Amino acid sequence: MTIQEVKQEIPAATKPIVKVLRKTDSTKIIVLGFNQGVTLKEHETNVPAKLVVIEGQVQYREGDKSVILKQYDELEIPVNILHSVEGIQQSICLLIHG
Question: What InterPro entries does this protein's entry cite (predicted)?
Fold first, then answer.
């Protein structure tokens, strides 16, 4: 029910919604929910990661690079590189670490 819970919280969200869907010794899957205009501030990851858009549309920014990701688009996030994600529409993404 984690994804449904995130979806229900999005309309009132003023910051990204972050919930762990699954965690093992080698992998972590996180559900991210974005209301329109809400940004996951600039940060780095220290493990290989992939962002997958399940619903909606987000903008991924990395330095001068900006990419619009739509439903079912996916993007490899490089290790130790500053990046941010903003909801262009109400959106649900999976972030896969490992």
Answer: RmlC-like_jellyroll, RmlC_Cupin_sf
Q: Which domains does the chain have, with CATH numbers?
A: 2-97 (2.60.120.10)
Please state the pTM of the whole predicted model. Answer: 0.94
Q: Is 10 exposed, middle or buried (CB count within 10 Å of its CB: 0-12, 13-18, 19+)?
A: buried
Residue 36 tokens read as: 């329109």
pLDDT digits (tens, 9 = 90+) for 35-76: 999 999 999 999 999 999 999 999 999 999 999 999 999 999
What span, in angstroms and rounded, lies between the C-alpha atoms of 68 and 81?
18
